[in-house]
Specification:
Layout lengths: L12 E6 L7 E5 L1 H4 L2 H32 L11
Antiparallel strand pairs: 1-2
């Protein structure tokens, strides 16, 4: 039984958004019209990818800042 206030989603379906560089197995609850529109699904995945890419970049910046503040090396040994 659904929660009150979600009646408008009763006809929605789970759509596979596919894999990207930063997202795997992405799915979303969408209307049947959106589920049948590959361009809209791709746009949804692209938005998820953009947000995941930004989070990854932010995480790297924070980790690099922590390492630098701690006096740790910030160079990647594999880069040499």
């Amino acid at each position: 039984m659904g929660r009150a206030g979600n009646e408008d989603r009763a006809d929605h379906v789970v759509a596979q958004l596919g894999d990207g560089e930063h997202t795997w197995g992405a799915m979303s609850l969408v209307s049947p019209e959106v589920a049948d529109d590959p361009a809209k699904l791709r746009a949804m995945r692209d938005e998820l990818e953009s947000k995941a890419r930004q989070r990854s970049s932010d995480r790297e910046a924070v980790e690099g800042g922590i390492a630098q503040a701690s006096g740790m090396s910030t160079t990647d040994p594999d880069d040499n």
